[in-house]
Design goal:
There is one protein chain. With 330 residues, the protein is α/β, with parallel strands linked by helices. The chain contains 13 helices and eight strands. An eight-stranded parallel beta barrel has the order 1-2-3-4-5-6-7-8, surrounded by six helices. The protein is globular.
Length: 330
């Protein structure tokens, strides 16, 4: 195995991490909060802030099927066409790379993902559940053949058995995927559990010449802690969103992540300016996300946050009753 493909050795909290790559998923995960209705000015400002901050990848949204999802009901970043991305980045004359996410079984990937030399996109991240791994592999093979970097993002991993994880890693290890991602979709993992998963993923990555990534949710206010755990263990890719903007409880805050990293290429001040100018007005407009008691409850019970999201929309505060109700579905 070549040295560049070998998983890195364990780091410490003070380690300089030149092999680490930071991906901003604000538009993609944050789009789940507002149905992807971000104005171009917002996305352009984020793009510029990420470039100035040294962020390595910016994810522009999903490449979703327009047959499955009505374009009249979603903003354009649900579909993040090459033309819409180009309207923001032009030829992207920067060191930052562009990413999109494609859900296994929810993307017309053969038609909608054009060859890499015709697209501003560098990385196609295939999001998959355990039961859709075969579909994910077909999508990864297609994207690889078209010239893209690829990742397999295994969602709801806290629901997967050890046998399922081992089987998925073996299948993906024999695919051309570049990066294997742990996705704590329900914000249910504790650092000790993350550490065990990292050991499994890193062992597989070392065996098959892959890299490992981490995408955390903040239901138990552990997204940052779990991301740090991944970094120290040896993950090469980590996700963040500005001010944790993302579905439900949100994600690891990008500003926290950049402050933690010891690589001098990263700067925090452009992100702080973006928060001041763009994120604060979003909150003032009534858009709601971030840690709250209902999301804590679904996280503890290892459940999808949809019930908590509905609870929040209804502006309920009967937390005890909500807890009793979702216990019945546990």
């Amino acid at each position: 195995m070549s040295e560049e493909n070998r998983a890195p050795q364990k780091r410490t909290l003070l380690s300089h991490t030149p092999d680490l790559r930071v991906l901003d998923a604000t538009v993609r995960d944050g789009g789940l909060v507002n149905d992807f209705y971000f104005k171009d000015e917002f996305v352009k400002a984020l793009y510029k802030a990420n470039v100035k901050s040294g962020v390595d990848y910016m994810e522009f949204g999903y490449r979703a099927s327009k047959d499955m999802f009505d374009p009249e009901k979603f903003g354009k970043w649900k579909f993040s066409s090459d033309d819409d991305i180009r309207a923001i980045v032009g030829d992207n004359p920067t060191d930052m790379k562009i990413s999109i996410m494609a859900d296994a079984g929810r993307t017309d990937y053969k038609e909608d993902i054009r060859p890499r030399n015709e697209s501003p996109v560098d990385l196609v991240r295939v999001a998959t559940y355990i039961h859709t791994i075969p579909t994910a592999v077909a999508m990864i093979e297609d994207a690889h053949e078209k010239g893209y970097e690829t990742s397999a993002n295994i969602m709801a991993i806290s629901k997967c058995s050890g046998i399922e994880v081992e089987s998925a890693l073996e299948i993906l290890g024999n695919s051309p995927v570049d990066t294997l991602y742990i996705v704590d979709s329900y914000g249910s993992l504790y650092p000790e559990q993350t550490r065990i998963l990292l050991d499994r993923f890193l062992e597989s990555a070392d065996r098959y010449g892959k890299k490992v990534g981490m995408h955390a949710h903040n239901n138990q206010q552990l997204a940052f802690a779990n991301t740090i755990e991944a970094i120290v263990k040896g993950a090469c890719y980590v996700d963040g969103t500005v001010s944790s903007l993302g579905r439900g409880a949100g994600n690891c805050a990008l500003e926290l992540l950049l402050c933690f990293l010891k690589n001098p290429k990263y700067r925090i001040d452009p992100i702080l300016s973006f928060i001041e100018k763009e994120i604060l007005p979003l909150r003032e407009s009534g858009l709601s996300w971030g840690y709250d008691v209902p999301y804590l409850m679904t996280g503890i019970l290892n459940q999808h946050p949809r019930a908590a999201i509905q609870f929040e929309k209804e502006k309920r505060t009967d937390y005890r009753q909500f807890y009793i109700d979702i216990l019945d579905t546990f």
